[in-house]
Amino acid sequence: MIKLYVLFFLLTVFIMLACVVYIATRHIIKKNKLNISIIQLLIVGIVTTLAYCLAITAREELYAELGYATYFAGIDWILITFMFYARHYTKIWQDTYAAPLITTTIAVIDNISIFHNFKWHHAFMLKQVTIGEDWFYSFAINDYYVVHLVFCYILVALIVLMFAQKTLQTSGFHRNRYLSILVMFTGIILLNVLYLFFDYPVDVSICLYSVASIFVSYYTLMYNPKTFVEFMLSTITERMECALISFDENDSYIYSNQVANRMFCQSGDKKLLEERFRKWREGKDANSISNANWNDIYNINGDEYRFDVHFNKVYDKKGFYCGCYFSFYDVTGDFLAYEEEKYRNSHDSLTGALKRESFYEEVRRILDENPHTEYVMVCTNIKGFKLINDMYGVDEGDKLLIRCSDLIREKISSASAFARLESDRFAILMPKNRYSEELFMTGMNQVSHFMNNSQYRMVILVGVYDIFDRHATVVSMCDGAFLAIDSIKDSFKNSIAYYGDMLRREYMSEQKILGEFEEALQTGQFAMFLQPVVTTDGRMTLCEALVRWIHPSRGIIAPVSFIPLLERTGYIYKLDQYIWEQAAKRLAYWTSLGHDELSISVNVSVKDFYYMDIYDTLVSLVEKYHIDPSRLKIEITESIFMTEKERQIEIITSLKEYGFLIEIDDFGSGYSSLNMLKEVPADILKMDMAFLSVDKNQNRGRKIVNTIITLAKALGMMVIIEGVETEEQLDYLKGTGADYLQGYYFNKPLPVKKFEDIYL
């Protein structure tokens, strides 16, 4: 009889071991506390069962007592590991660490006490029990065993409480998984109670460990009620943001979610979906392949929607066709957002006209797609537009620009394109046969009347470029039209000009200059010339650095031929930087000769402020050549402060604080000169002799010169008078209090070597 029990117990061990192997090989153990807790529970159950087998099969009392001690200790750890498993599985008391720590500590103490039973026999005593013809060692309970039982049943109560609470709190779909394990656990405990308190010779509850291991593994790792899966799938499909429609193998309607019904079948007639199905598949690749997707536009209740359509066929395990389903993702919002973003990136936010780069691309597309159509590039700008903003405010200026763009949009055809290149500059590409002066004159008059009043008369200038080379860059076409505008800016008779042969030659000449500029700079074709600046008693301590282009084939090119062009295109900063270094290098050379008293003035262009860091560049030069910054004087004009005045003044102030001396050039030639004296921290005022030209206003000019010099002296500034050409002018200027004089009377700009031969 005992052998039969042992056989059942070993079968239990085998089943639990099989569960351990299955879980370890089929599920991810690493970092999965639930799986690990199940394996721990099964391993403890295996050890406990084997220990009980040893206890009832041992023929020596020592081995039997060892088996029972291990069995009783194993019961502790079965309950401890089952409690750990219950915490991970039910997620009740999962964040509480005090109870597991206390129970584990008590279990260790209880195990130590039980294994000391060999010495004290305080927990149990062995006795021989006969079943049929077999006998085995059983045990009789002593006083301490009651303490062991109390601890075990406290653990049992905690486990039952966790599963009971979870069973009550969970949904009906999942209640079975917790209730089944609770019933199984309770059954094992009841059998164990029968064994202990009703003097049954063998603990048959161990046989249920195999059932328990299967229950725990299945309900924990694999059980998902079919009704729950169906509920989840139906809920998910109903809540999906896409429209979902499925059909069987005969193309008959099966199912559609709420989104699909709302979009495609508001009447509820499912036959409509079958009709739509045939239209959706018509001509699509979905007729021959399992999966396909496309983008389509559908009209729903009078509104146009864009969908990403996904079509999928479904096959069973043997490869037989079962049916198919469509999923429709509404991408109308994304499409509109994309189109809006695309529009914002390509169109001017104020006028709705194309932006510069988008216009260039559109022009190139039109020219390439219409090779047999002749086109003209028409560019416009408003004369003195900055003055409009100053007089009427930016809001009125914006309204004017909107008016201009609206009129252009009205006048041009769909085969044209127009853009707001910048500020008040518009460009229009249009077929040549659509262009007429009358068209633009009418439009200009309409816009002009928008703001003309007694204080201001608005003039719109138009430049026309006949596109003779379709492969030229669009930038050059616009440049040609604006060159035509530049030719009439000072004219009050004409408002429309054409890019003709003369402008073409001028443009080609400018392009040639720009094309040769970089090489000329690298090969040293630009030379620094120096013009002396003398005191009224004839001493030379200062000179101005000027530039000449010494071309290898064309000789010396006058500055007027390239300086304005370089200013306009922005290349001037490279030339200025080159001349600044030449001046700094020369000052260092003069220092080595002992001429520490000599200084050089260098010019700063408005474009320099935008294309480089002026402060770092000038400071690095004086540090590189070890010269006093006051010897490299910075010469500026009021045009520098036409835009971003505060930023420019901040840079000038920083240079002055470092030690540079600041000169204001061409004082009196603009309308803001007095503001410059107030706001710019300048050291030297430079005034042209134009005030003293020989005409009927000479006396008034002299009074102005005297007044400006007096004002400069009151502000602590030195004064340079430039443009001195006659002895009469010199005689007058000696008595004005001016500090320095400059002009052809003393000398013209000289090559550096000749300058040094004369003055050093």
Q: Report the top-level CATH class of the largest domain.
A: Alpha Beta
Domain unit count = 4
CATH superfamily of the largest domain: EAL domain
Stretches where pLDDT is under 50 for at least 5 consecutive residues are none
* Radius of gyration using CA atoms only: 50 Å
- Mean of pLDDT: 83
Largest sheet entry:
8 strands, mixed, barrel
CATH architecture term of the largest domain: Alpha-Beta Barrel
Task: Estimate percent helicity.
Answer: 40-55%
**Tally the helices: what do you get?**
27
Relative strand content? 15-25%
Strand numbers in spatial order across the main sheet:
13-14-16-17-18-19-20-21
DSSP strand count: 22
Give the overall shape.
elongated
Give the N-terminus to C-terminus distance in angstroms: 131 Å
Q: Can you describe what's shown?
A:
It comes from Pseudobutyrivibrio xylanivorans. InterPro entries: Cyclic-di-GMP_PDE-like (IPR050706), EAL_dom (IPR001633), EAL_sf (IPR035919), GGDEF_dom (IPR000160), Nucleotide_cyclase (IPR029787), Rev_trsase/Diguanyl_cyclase (IPR043128). Residues 510-760 form the EAL domain. It contains 27 helices and 22 strands. With 760 residues, it is of the alpha/beta class. The protein has 4 domains: 2-223, Rhopdopsin 7-helix transmembrane proteins (Up-down Bundle); 239-335, PAS domain (Beta-Lactamase); 351-499, Alpha-Beta Plaits; 516-759, Alpha-Beta Barrel (TIM Barrel). α2 (33-57) runs antiparallel to α8 (208-222) and α7 packs antiparallel against α8. The model has no long low-confidence stretch (mean pLDDT 83).
